[in-house]
Amino acid sequence: MRLWTVHPRFLDPKGLTAAWREALLAQKVLSGATRGYRRHPQLTRFREQADPSGAIAAFLACLADEARRRGYRFDTTKISRHTFTGQIPETDGQLLHEWKHLQRKLQARAPELARQLRDIAMPEPNPLFHIVPGKVRDWERGPA
User: Fold this and answer.
1) Per-residue pLDDT tens for 87-105?
2) pLDDT at 71 > cutoff 80
3) Which of 117, 111, 15, 114 is nearest to 72 (CA)?
4) In a domain, 71, yes or no
5) How many domains, in total, are found in the chain?
6) Whole-angstrom Cα distance, residue 100 to residue 64?
7) Domain containing 77: what range?
8) Does residue 81 sit within a domain?
């Protein structure tokens, strides 16, 4: 499960579709509708919010907006009706860690997109996140 801090516009079609599926699973986990993935570290920053279901719904809405912009049809009726106002703070270290991770994925499965994005030093975040100074989050797994 990867709930990207980077703006969904940087995701290739496979990445955007996977992010949608994974965020829908995260929504189920956060609402208590499934027993799997309950301890997944990617859910930490959503659980820390006053309304975790609203936070993941806002995340899904950002993905749906990007999908719509590309002409895709994601079923937005699957998004919880919880609402979330504001932004989730996330560190620039986490954003850059994910950016490096995404660049490696894009080099393998979407090399042309990887070439287009290679000169971006600091990517735009998903609008749900407010970037603050800091290191990679403790809950993050895997190499940068």
Assistant:
1) 999 999 999 999 999 999 9
2) yes
3) 15
4) yes
5) 1
6) 24
7) 8-132
8) yes
